[in-house]
Write a structure and sequence with these properties.
By secondary structure, the chain is α+β, with helices and mostly antiparallel strands. The chain is built from 18 helices and 19 strands. Helix content is 49%, strand content 20%.
Length: 557
């Protein structure tokens, strides 16, 4: 007994609560040790399947988020092209030429087309064709060089499908050709050049149809965007046409099978018939087969472009082409090869055999892996929201978010019977800065203008970049028309002052149009139309001024 008491004080000095922790820790340790023994002895399959499922879930999330980011990127490209084609259809110089036949206006059109092609760099051709289909203006842009095609080389395209189909459209409707490879002199151009043709009919001041404007878009830019955006995922990116041919695929030799007589059977639909049938069973999805993990979403580019056109152009009228037939359906997909899926599982088996006793390390590793998967998912979601809603250069709300906020502001204004104002801003002199000082200076100028506009309005108001050098402001609540006019004048005044750039100060201006709800319109479309028209009135007045929707100067309101 005496010997036992000599050794017991070491235990007696441990408080009761700590003792329970130690005892419970021992019991947990024993329980965990038993589990480890079970795993090592043959129960490791449980952890193996759990980790395999976790890996698959993380992979599925990554693939789905990557595909969504690709879809958003494609739609942003299509939105930009729609904006450009609608701009060309309403070009002042074009309307002047249609109304007066002035050949000088044609020269001005050529310059505008050349500037646009040089700015975009992915427009192979920009053309205006009259009502007979004869080219009146054509700009070729290849290898970074633009060319104004002389009148002697302009061609009659009246018999081409793209002219006939575009000319038959209603005002504001968009023509989109299937994506294919450019053909020169009856042969596929080498190296191959993927091409999309986008057009819309044009009308003179009297709303008479007078021809079409057409952009030949080098779709390699779109395909490269898909590849670049898809680098965040394990899967191999694919873009398929309506018949299941690869427009973009893991193997370049498999692409464009429908364009080559000896490769008509080379298609995703033939190589993976069961998966192709699944693709055609819904608008989007994700599934696992013996051929790997497939994630897909079906895109309707013409339908999307038509919706954007209608939102941008109050004169646009829906037509039968708004519900796109099968040639205007793309399938954006990714495939994770079975080797990639099974690789981590084989590695996990080796780890279980080698480190079966280190259960706590495995648990910590699993928790860390799960946290990383959640963090990656949140980052991807934030990137998707940023890419879909905000302009990458200025950080301002983009066109999509602008229209969403305008819709919400209109609903609130109607509900609470209050006024709101819409201010359209087009920079005067931006192209000169961009051309003389370079694109870096132009980008810096757009950022400075964004900051000036944001500082000129309230935090509750929305400043948006619609594209290029066009901005818009939603004044969510104004007391009267005069208050809205004062904001427009303030913007003109702010942008009239010299702006300091890294390359030196520049002076620009702004043509501003202001429309107020409900005085100038009771719907979103009416308000946009009135503000846009007022902005063009400002340009006609000599630019660097502000005009209310009733065509009076803001200063006179």
């Amino acid at each position: 007994m005496f010997i036992n008491r000599k050794h017991r004080p070491h235990i007696g000095k441990i408080p009761g609560e700590d003792r329970m922790v130690v005892l419970r820790g021992i019991r947990v340790f024993l329980a965990l040790l038993a589990i480890v023994i079970l795993i090592v002895a043959g129960g490791g399959s449980l952890i193996y399947h759990v980790e395999k499922d976790n890996f698959l879930e993380r992979l599925q999330i990554t693939e789905a988020n990557s595909l969504e980011l690709q879809r958003v990127s494609i739609e942003r490209i299509l939105d930009r092209v729609v904006s450009d084609i609608l701009f060309l259809a309403e070009q002042n110089e074009l309307i002047m030429h249609l109304d007066t036949g002035n050949r000088r206006a044609v020269l001005d059109m050529e310059r505008e087309y050349l500037h646009l092609a040089a700015s975009r760099r992915d427009y192979d051709q920009i053309r205006y064709l009259n009502e007979q289909g004869v080219e009146q203006v054509r700009i070729n842009f290849r290898n970074g060089l633009g060319e104004v095609v002389p009148e002697s080389r302009l061609q009659d395209k009246g018999g081409r499908y793209y002219f006939k189909e575009t000319f038959a459209l209603n005002e504001g409707n968009i023509f989109l050709s299937p994506m294919d490879l450019n053909i020169e002199h009856g042969r596929i151009e080498q190296p191959p050049r993927p091409m999309l043709r986008i057009g819309t009919p044009v009308f003179d001041t009297y709303r008479r149809k007078r021809g079409i404007v057409l952009i030949n878009y080098n779709a390699q830019d779109l395909l490269d965007t898909i590849l670049w955006t898809g680098t965040t995922a394990e899967g191999l990116s694919m873009l398929l046409n309506c018949r299941g041919y690869w427009l973009l695929g893991p193997d370049p030799d498999d692409e464009w099978g429908f364009m080559y007589p000896d490769r008509k059977d080379v298609s995703f639909a033939n190589r993976f018939p069961a998966e192709w049938q699944r693709f055609n069973s819904g608008e989007q999805g994700q599934f696992l087969t013996e051929n790997g993990l497939f994630t897909f979403v079906r895109l309707h580019p013409l339908t999307h472009m038509q919706k954007i056109s209608i939102r941008m152009n109050a004169k646009a009228v829906a037509s039968a082409t708004a519900d796109a037939p099968s040639p205007y359906v793309w399938t954006l997909a990714s495939r994770v090869h079975p080797d990639v899926l099974n690789g981590p599982a084989k590695t996990l088996k080796l780890k279980l055999f080698a480190f079966g006793g280190a259960l706590f390390i495995i648990m910590v590793f699993g928790a860390w892996e799960l946290a990383m998967a959640i963090a990656r998912r949140q980052i991807y979601q934030d990137q998707l929201v940023e890419a879909a809603m905000y302009d990458a250069l200025t950080g301002l709300p983009n066109r999509k978010l602008f229209f969403d906020r305008l819709d919400s502001a209109m609903i609130a204004a109607e509900r609470y019977e209050r006024r709101l104002a819409l201010v359209y801003i087009d920079l005067d002199g931006f192209k000169e800065v961009n051309d003389t000082k370079g694109h870096d200076a132009g980008d810096e100028l757009l950022k400075r203008v964004s900051a000036l506009l944001t500082g000129a309005v309230r935090k509750s108001d929305t400043v948006s970049r619609l594209g290029g050098d066009e901005f818009a402001v939603i004044l969510g609540q104004v007391t009267n028309v005069q208050d809205a006019a004062l904001v427009g004048e303030k913007i003109v005044s702010e942008l009239r002052a010299p702006i300091a750039l890294t390359s030196g100060p520049v002076t620009i201006g702004a043509s501003v149009g202001v429309a107020v709800f409900p005085e100038h319109g009771h719907s979103e479309e009416e308000l946009i139309k009135k503000a846009d028209q007022a902005m063009y009135v400002s340009k006609d007045k000599g630019k660097n001024t502000c005009t209310l929707a009733d065509s009076s100067r803001c200063a006179d309101a």
